[in-house]
Each structure stands twice: as C-alpha cells, then as structure tokens.
Amino acid sequence: MEQRYRWKNKHLREHIDVLDGKLAPTILLKNCTYLNQTFRSWMQANIWIYEDRIVYVGEKLPENLVNCSTIDCSGQFIVPGYIEPHAHPFQLYNPHSFAAYASGRGTTTIINDNMALILHLDKKRAFLLMKDLRRIPASMFWWCRFDPQTEIMNEEEIFSHTNIKSWLEHDAVIQGGELTGWPKLLAGDDMMLHWIQEAKRMRKQIEGHFPGASEKTLAKMMLMGADCDHEAMTGEEVYNRLMQGYTVSLRHSSIRPDLPSLLEDIQKLGITAYDHMMFTTDGSSSGFYREGVIDQMIRIAIEKGVPVIDAYNMATINPARYYNLSHIHGKIATGRVANLNILSSVEEPCPVSVLAKGKWVKRDGEIIGEAFPDLDWNEYGLEPFRPDWELTMDDLQFSMPFGIKMENAVITKPYSVSLEVSRDCLSDNHDECFFMLIDRKGKWRVNTILKGFASSLQGMASSFSNTGDIILIGKSKADILYAFNRMKEIGGGIVVSEGGNILCELPLPLGGLMTGLQLEELMEEEKKLLEVLRGRGYGYSDPIYSLLFFSSTHLPYIRITQQGMYDVMNKMVLFPSIMR
C-alpha cells in the first residue's frame, strides 16, 4: 500500500521526455494494425512503449531511437492483453504459476480470489505476497471475501470487521465478494451489508454468486449492491441479469463448460449488445487450460458468430471499464500499461508474441521462461505441511446412520447407510467408501460414508480442500492410513494407495495446498491422478473440484465441515465434529 500512484512524478516526466525526443522508447512497434476500441475498428499506427507504459499511439515515429528495440508488425494484428475477471488461483497451481501460463496465452491481467490467503496466511504475509506478485509481468488484482464459503470454527476471528476493512482498503483489492453467503445477507446480516456499503464507498465492485436466482432475488441483490454475476447457466438467466442491470460474466470452466450453449441461447433471444458481458474460466483445474485461458473463450465466441470486435472487447475493454481500470488496462492507447498481444490473424486469439508491462513473456511463439522469476514461498508461511500428530486406527471408526451421496462432481445429498461399517475393509461390489475430514492440526474429525465417489479406491489422502483440512477416502482403513502417512512424508499433497503400495502421488509442498510446478507439468501429474481415480470408479469430470467442494456450504445439500455434517438448506449442523 506504500505505492500510492502507479507512476511517480519522475516517471511521468520521463514519459514526456520520450515524446520530446530527450529519451528513446524502450520498444517501438512499427506498422501496426491494432484494435482501436474507441472507433470499434482496426487501425494503422506506430506504438511507442517506454518501460511498462504506452507513451504514444499514432502516425509519428520517435526522433530518438538510441537502444530502442524496433519491431515491424506488418501483417500482424495487435489487441490489448486479455483480462480474467474471476480467477481462483489456488486449484493445486499457485497465483504465480497460473499468471505465468496465462500470460503466455495472452491473459495478462488477473483478478484473483483471496480465499486461500485469508484462510491460511496472516494478513502481513498475505499482503507481502500480494506486494511481491506486483513485480511479475502479469497485472494482479484481488477480491475481498466476506464469508468463508463453509462452516469454520473461528469465522468471527478471520472474517472480523478489522480484517475485512484492511483488505478492502488495500489498493490491489478492487472488488468485494464473491457473495457465496448472500442468503445470510438477505436474512439480515448487517455486517456483510456494511462491508458491501464500504466497498461501494471506495468505488469497488461487488461480485455475486447467484446460481438459479429468481428475477426477484436478482433485483434484491442489485438493491443490496451487487454489480456482476457469473452463475448464469442459460441464455434466459443471462437475459434476466442484464435486465436487472448486472454485468454478466459468461463462464466456461472445467465443471461448467457453458460458453457455446450460452452464446447460442443469447443469439436465439435476439441479444446483440455485448457491452455488459465478459468472459471467465472461474478457476478451472489445470487440464482445462490446455486449450487456453481467455483466448480459448474468444475463439469459441468468434466460432459461434459473435462479431470479432465484440469478442475481443469482452476480454479486454469490457472488464476494464467494469472495474474502473480502463485508464490503465484493456485498451491500446496513450498512457495505458503496455499489455499487448500480437496475433498472426484476427481469428486466432492465441498470440504469437506477448508484452506484459512492457516485457516480452512470449516472442515469436517461444515462452520467455525467465520473465517470471521464482518466489520464495517459505517467506509467506507456505511451507511443506508437516503435521506433528498421528492418525490411528482408533480414528477410523464409522458409525454414523447416514452418509453423503454424490449426485455429480460437486453436488452431495444425504442417504441412509445400510452397510456394515465396523469392518476394516469395504467390498468393491458397491460405490461406498469410508470418508473422513480431519483437522489439519489434529484437533477434531468427522467420520461418515461417501457414496458415488469410487467403487474400488482403497486409500486416498488429500491435504487439498476448501479449508486445508485433511480429506481421507477409501475402502481399506490400512490403505487410508498408508496414504495419510505418505502424504505427511511429502509435505502435503494428494496420495492414492492400494495394497500397501503408492499408486499415485501429487506433492503440494506450498502449505499442503499448492504445487510449485509450472502448469504444463501439473497438467501431466493431474492427468495421472485422474486416470488412477477413473480406473477405480470415479465417474465425474473433475476430482479436484470434488475435493474442494466437499466442505463448501454455498452448494446443496449436505456438506462435511469443521463444525460437522452440515445441512445447507436448513442451515444446521446435523452431527458435530468429534474432538480427538
């Protein structure tokens, strides 16, 4: 927060000196065909860049070219860097590795969820990480959550007024939300309403989370202060949100790959104005990004008949305007941050070259690896997960009368347990497994039965979850113990065991939550994990999200949380967690 302005006075004077010929630009892009969003057309110009800023766009060439890198862009097309307005950069990958990968595909500005930071880091270390992430070429902004998205033990302490106020006041935080706890808001939570009011007073946006919301609920939430929602799953839901004054993020993610059908529905409804729409991949698992990040969505939009300029605007100027960032992002014009994508053709949104803050992160098809130097994660308290407690067979006692049944990758319902669960192994003739959530500090546990996750999975341990507590699943108590102990040895991660052997392990040494691997490497490791789980009966699209959402009370119907088995619809703990 110590940098009140992006460019200090001396920097602004230098920018003027470039125009006056006293200094040379750092980079000159000549003979550019670029997207001018003021005129909604492709125009010709020369683009002067000095360090991280565009200092001129027009016909003129600089008088001073000493040590200036000059690139002839004839035959290519230049668009602004793409903006991901709704990222969850903790899905095994980390904010740094996601930004590096996304930038190489042209997504150079990312607006990030702060959930993992507020739950797992103290404020000082979280803000230090955010400060250090400002030094990378990608432009990183953040949200401020108002609720933990589950039932935790110390919510009043973590989501205290003092904490939320500090987050909202941080200049890298540009929105409040997403409002997964909106039912509490409508039910009379005046503290959350006060935080929304504070965010609005600071000219920051409020992101909703309103799946299946009626027109009346959408209207109420707009009156409460919501500005945008990304949960529309049909064209009619897009229409209803637009009618109530929302900006709509069209989602295409690993668990909701909705964009093609949304665009088809929108066109059937006769919607031809795209100015209040933008794109989001909503924190997908790594494998989903093989086809790209926001560039993938632009390509789909063009293929579905969205006018080309509108498709690019939905990825650039629309989110920039929405977040009040258009004076520095989302546009190729004098004064903007030099985030530029150089394309081989208008129909191919994955760039051949990328400038992020005036630095090449991709050049002529080659990723510049050194553009994103590594971080020392230990400095932020994200050290390997080394619990100082033991899991024993005494912990693996299962006697609850009902369990959790998976309806799909993320929706879970209660069901009556008819199995004999006192034995040490369950049969492979059904899809029911032992299921435990245990405190990462070993203080409490919740034991039940999980139906529908797998039919022959013997043992799995995961330190990756919504709250960072440990998830244990399997048919064999011995293999569950074996997987847990191996997970401890590797400093946290996801481990699958069978017959006392390790079938698959994915280390997550950054607090037991994230890997330091590059996304391309993580994709391969995640693919191996998926193949192992599929071979043992996992039948859904995304096991990473299944693990993440077992505790998430913004989804129906029953969840396993720090407080115990939780009935989401009736907002009550059915069976409390057991102290160890």
From TrEMBL:
Similarity field: Belongs to the metallo-dependent hydrolases superfamily. Adenine deaminase family.
Cross-referenced Pfam families: Adenine_deam_C (PF13382), Amidohydro_1 (PF01979)
Keywords assigned: Hydrolase
MF annotations from Gene Ontology: adenine deaminase activity
Entry annotated with the keyword Transmembrane: no
SUPFAM superfamilies: Composite domain of metallo-dependent hydrolases, Metallo-dependent hydrolases
Sections of the chain in a coiled coil: none
Alphabetical list of Gene3D superfamilies matching this protein: Metal-dependent hydrolases, Urease, subunit C, domain 1
Organism phylogeny: Bacteria, Bacillati, Bacillota, Bacilli, Bacillales
EC number: 3.5.4.2
Annotated organism of origin: Neobacillus piezotolerans
Domain of life: Bacteria
PANTHER family, alphabetized: ADENINE DEAMINASE YERA-RELATED (PTHR11113:SF6), N-ACETYLGLUCOSAMINE-6-PHOSPHATE DEACETYLASE (PTHR11113)
Substrates-to-products reaction catalysed: adenine + H2O + H(+) = hypoxanthine + NH4(+)
Residues covered by the Adenine deaminase C-terminal domain: 410-570
Protein name as it appears in the record: adenine deaminase
Domain (Amidohydrolase-related) ranges: 77-361
Tagged with keyword Hydrolase: yes
